[in-house]
Design brief:
The chain has 213 residues and is mainly alpha-helical. It has 2 domains: 17-111, Rna Polymerase Sigma Factor, Chain: A (Orthogonal Bundle), CATH 1.10.1740.10; 130-212, Winged helix-like DNA-binding domain superfamily/Winged helix DNA-binding domain (Arc Repressor Mutant, subunit A). 62% of the residues lie in helices and 0% in strands. The protein has helices spanning 5-11, 22-30, 34-52, 59-75, 86-102, 134-145, 150-161, 166-173, 177-194, 199-212. The two termini are 33 Å apart.
Length: 213
């Protein structure tokens, strides 16, 4: 049982750091703790911005939309509910907001078509394999990912690069968890067909998608 933040902040006053647990940050943030809000925003800013850039190549739009979301969360913090996954909550909120922002600019497109054909940026914490062949793997995965259908690309991105569960992805995209699994299977099948048939890359391929499935 987590102590209410008012009591908690008395115990760990000024001790909120990058190692503070998400659930504690969320409770303290909702209680008006500015240090918790700052750490929360810092912790997820890069992840959310990367996700936003999957929908539009316009960095300014993505950043402005993210800033709007963060301001909205702070102003309405007292009305926010508890959540088992802050990352999922923020991704879902940001996805809804950026699609709403982009929709008037491209009314003729389906919502899923906003997931642009960007090269995935691998941050240090998202590195797949720490070895000499890593650069080649990244390049190969990037090339293949851009050839996947839009929905498959987004599901793979959310599953592997953001670590969401199938149930969370289904909730985020308004589809059933089984549909998420089906999409992942089709993506895997497509990537298998495109993957270079060499021993080294075959081993990397199965290591890569073993995590997804």
């Amino acid at each position: 049982m987590i102590l209410p933040c008012l009591f908690l902040t008395e115990l760990i006053l000024t001790q909120i750091t990058k190692f503070t647990d998400d659930s504690i940050l969320w409770d303290c943030f909702r209680d008006g703790n500015e240090a918790a809000y700052t750490e929360l925003a810092t912790r997820y800013y890069r992840t959310l911005l990367h996700y936003g850039l999957r929908f539009t190549p316009n960095v300014q739009i993505a950043e402005d939309t993210l800033q709007d979301l963060l301001i909205h969360l702070w102003l309405h913090r007292e009305n926010l509910n508890d959540t088992p996954s802050i990352k999922f909550y923020l991704l879902k909120s940001f996805r809804h907001r950026i699609i709403k922002t982009l929709k008037p600019l491209s009314e003729e497109l389906e919502l899923t078509d906003h997931f642009e054909n960007h090269i995935i940026e691998f941050s240090s914490e998202e590195a797949i394999i720490q070895r000499e062949s890593e650069a080649g793997l990244k390049h190969q995965v990037n090339e293949l990912m851009t050839q996947l259908p839009i929905r498959q690309r987004e599901v793979v991105y959310l599953k592997f690069f953001q670590g969401l569960k199938s149930e969370e992805i289904g909730n985020l995209l308004a589809i059933k968890p089984q549909s998420v699994s089906n999409i992942l299977q089709r993506a895997l099948s497509n990537l298998k067909e495109m993957w270079p048939i060499t021993p080294s890359f075959s081993i990397m391929f199965y290591s890569f998608f073993e995590i997804i499935l």
